[in-house]
UniProtKB/TrEMBL annotation:
The NodB homology domain, residue ranges: 1-140
Protein name: Glycoside hydrolase/deacetylase
Primary site of residence: membrane
Coiled coil segments of this chain: none
Organism encoding this protein: Mycena indigotica
Length: 480
């Protein structure tokens, strides 16, 4: 208790890592609920909080884990690099991992380490703090990095009671149900309110413009300030009809008192969205921000969806089965311009560097249609190495898109550039940059791949089957 109270009191973010540290992908939905419930209950008693993030043990998660986590209002937290300290890694090897992250010059990074390994807080963490500060990085919590609240509810700790023990709970690695004799708990623990019964709420994010991943120049807009007004796609402009507030309590509001709403709570695929007078108790207005830039209807397997993938003005937004595809990915900016807020929707040009070499850049050999995309030494300011992410397209030379030659879906298909409509492009020009730093071809299980793992000058870049779990070494790219 004392350790977690100390960390929380110092301003560190506290999140769920489950109760008994099982492999969640091997459990039923009720068993996952139980493991999350029990750690939430401990947090509610000891700290008076309910977390908004969950890191799955061993990094093991699937659609079942994601669905339960979303139902409990928690986003799944993963990492970019692992010090391997919990697997016997030495301080020296951990420092090497940190050096690799720092030298890659990634815009941001999450590094896995364990304070339960004695040398991590005493040696590795101080080294990391000094290293990243000297590199110009700002050290923030995960929630601060994403611009969201770290907690669903913040109340007050409860008075310790004699029954606060681990008796009758799953032992490490195990779960409720089956032959355990332990009943599964699937509810929500109560967080005690302050003495005035007015619990504090997370700080809201105001003036948020929400862009479909397909085009950062388009924004979610409301037809009017009336109950039942349609939620549509429109050209972005400074307007109250496009300026949303992420309240931090599950509501996404606009015009002060209207909220994103599922009409009549219908779970039917294709149900068109509206706004309605906000009510914190209205389950049809509760949304969870997903780790993959999705907006999931809390407790349901339905996500905000760009109908038919169309960014035409007036296209009405709908709900659809959550699939983490481009139609369900949205970025946010502070104001109508692209490139801020939730990230990934456009903005300044960056180089694209293979994780294997911080001094090698993706380069177009010329500004002509069909020009090959190759590995070359990075040259500061070189126009053929400056890529801009606009919606689903990756642009170079202003109006040339990263393109799969002839739309070839075979492994080893070579990449080129071709003229395109920035932010839209054709089917061979649509890409998603994942949090794990893979660049995947939308609608295909293909990723941008460093051919044969070679960083030699002129090595032509290809596509290859995306690695099934975390990206392979040849498929990790840093946008710097």
């Amino acid at each position: 208790m004392a350790d977690v109270q100390y960390a929380f009191g110092k301003g560190h973010q506290v999140a769920s890592h489950t109760w008994s540290h099982p492999t969640l992908t091997s459990l039923s939905a009720d068993q996952i609920h139980d493991n999350m419930y029990r750690i939430e209950e401990a947090f509610s008693r000891i700290l008076g909080i309910r977390p908004a993030f969950m890191r799955p043990p061993f990094g093991a998660w699937d659609s079942n884990v994601q669905s339960v986590s979303a139902a409990r209002g928690q986003s799944i937290a993963m990492w970019d690099a692992d010090t391997k300290d919990a697997d016997g890694g030495t301080v020296a090897s951990g420092k090497a991992v940190l050096d690799g992250v720092a030298n890659a010059n990634a815009p941001n990074a999450i590094v896995l380490a364990h304070e339960t390994v004695s040398t991590t807080p005493s040696e590795l963490v101080p080294y990391a703090i000094s290293l990243f500060k000297n590199k110009g990085y700002q050290l923030v919590t995960l929630a601060e990095c994403l611009g969201v609240s770290p907690y669903q509810v913040v109340g007050v700790p409860q008075q310790p009671m004699p029954h606060w023990t681990c008796d009758g709970t799953p032992k490490p690695g195990l779960a409720c149900g089956g032959n355990s004799g332990i009943s599964c708990q699937t509810g929500t623990p109560i967080v005690a309110s302050p003495p005035n019964n007015d619990p504090p709420t997370p700080e809201p994010l105001t003036n948020q413009y929400i862009h479909p991943m397909a085009n950062s120049g388009k924004c979610l807009a409301v037809a009017s300030n009336s109950d039942g007004a349609a939620v549509t796609v429109q050209d972005c402009q400074t307007s109250n009809s496009q300026a949303w507030t992420i309240t931090g309590t599950g509501l996404i509001s606009i015009y002060g008192n209207k909220c994103l709403d599922v009409p009549s709570g219908s779970t039917a695929l294709g149900t068109k969205l509206q706004v309605w007078t906000c009510s914190q108790s209205n389950a049809n207005q509760q949304w969870t921000l997903g780790a993959a830039q999705t907006l999931q209807w809390t407790g349901k397997s339905r996500c905000l969806d760009l109908t038919d993938g169309s960014v035409a003005n007036g296209n009405r937004m709908q709900i659809w089965s959550c699939a983490n595809n481009q139609n369900q990915q949205f970025t946010r900016t502070d104001g109508p311009g692209s490139g801020g807020g939730g990230g990934g929707g456009g903005g300044s040009a960056k180089t694209i560097r293979p994780n294997k070499s911080g001094s090698t850049c993706l380069s177009a050999v010329s500004n002509n249609n069909g020009a090959a995309v190759v590995a070359q030494p990075c040259v500061t300011g070189a126009a053929n190495q400056q890529w801009t992410q606009n919606g689903g397209t990756l642009l170079v030379h202003g109006n040339k898109c990263l393109d799969v030659t002839d739309g070839n879906t075979s492994n080893g298909a070579k990449l080129q550039i071709w003229a395109c409509n920035p932010g839209q492009g054709n089917a061979a020009q649509q890409w998603t940059v994942s949090a794990a730093r893979a660049i995947s071809w939308n609608g295909r299980n293909k990723c941008v791949d460093l051919t044969d793992g070679r960083t030699t000058t002129g090595n032509r870049i290809q596509t290859w089957d995306c690695s099934p779990s975390s990206p392979g070494a040849n498929q990790i790219w840093n946008l710097v």
